[in-house]
């Protein structure tokens, strides 16, 4: 089985400038994703998909490959992760005559990704014959009790009013994607053009093991969580 790790790292970032290579506890944040992929020993190819020469240079220094730069079409604000991955797979096939059985899309701003977690997800995908596997976590509060708030009147209503009188212990657990990585069988990705398929599984993480990073507050919280885990 041939496996490729694809780390998307676009140059443009509006909310946090240079987000993908910003210093995170002493290292460019992309360093952690690259080193986790290399350290897992699972990949024939660890590559970074970027449109930015500085990101490409740092990625190569850490040990990743950047065999080609991302196109303008997959570098704008409207390109999806699926668009980026398809371009990578197509370029490997047309330019380098290389094809892969499995891919792992690892996000550049996911410093909590570890070689062990990549292995656990990969083993689960093979054991259960899933098309894809990714980390997810339980919501800390039942989402069936979610509220709508009218922006003009500030009045509140239930999103799911049928759960108004249901005891919290009787409400089923709900999960959310942790935004770290996705293992996907290439034929499954080609079939569904997505990382989440009708035959996907998860490895469960607790709230200290991940952090979505979109704001300065998120960044600080991620550093605190990372130090806590160490």
Automatic annotation (TrEMBL):
Keywords: Nucleotidyltransferase, Transferase
EC number: 2.7.7.81
CDD domains: CMP-NeuAc_Synthase
Annotated InterPro entries: CMP-NeuNAc_synthase, Cytidylyl_trans, Nucleotide-diphossugar_trans, PseF
The UniProt record lists the keyword Transcription regulation: no
EC supergroup of this enzyme: transferase
GO molecular function: nucleotidyltransferase activity
Keyword Plastid attached: no
Pfam families found in the cross-reference section: CTP_transf_3
Entry's transmembrane regions: none
Name under which the protein is recorded: Pseudaminic acid cytidylyltransferase
């Amino acid at each position: 089985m041939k496996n490729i790790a694809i780390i998307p790292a676009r140059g443009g970032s509006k909310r946090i400038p240079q987000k993908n290579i910003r210093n995170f506890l002493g290292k460019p944040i992309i360093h952690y994703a690259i080193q986790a992929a290399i350290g897992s020993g699972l990949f024939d190819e660890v590559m970074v998909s970027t449109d930015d020469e500085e990101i490409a240079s740092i990625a190569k220094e850490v040990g990743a490959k950047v065999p080609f730069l991302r196109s303008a079409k997959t570098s704008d604000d409207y390109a999806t992760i699926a668009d980026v991955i398809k371009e990578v797979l197509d370029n490997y096939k047309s330019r380098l005559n290389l094809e892969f059985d499995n891919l792992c899309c690892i996000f550049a701003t996911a410093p909590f990704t570890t070689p062990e977690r990549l292995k656990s997800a990969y083993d689960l995908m093979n054991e259960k014959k899933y098309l894809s596997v990714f980390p997810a976590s339980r919501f800390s509060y039942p989402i069936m009790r979610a509220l709508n708030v009218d922006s003009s009147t500030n009045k509140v209503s239930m999103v799911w009013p049928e759960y108004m009188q249901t005891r919290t212990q009787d409400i089923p657990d709900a999960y959310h994607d942790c935004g770290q990585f996705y293992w996907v069988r290439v034929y499954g990705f080609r079939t569904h053009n997505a990382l989440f398929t009708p035959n996907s599984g998860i490895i469960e993480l607790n709230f200290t093991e991940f952090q979505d990073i979109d704001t300065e507050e998120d960044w600080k919280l991620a550093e605190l969580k990372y130090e806590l885990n160490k």
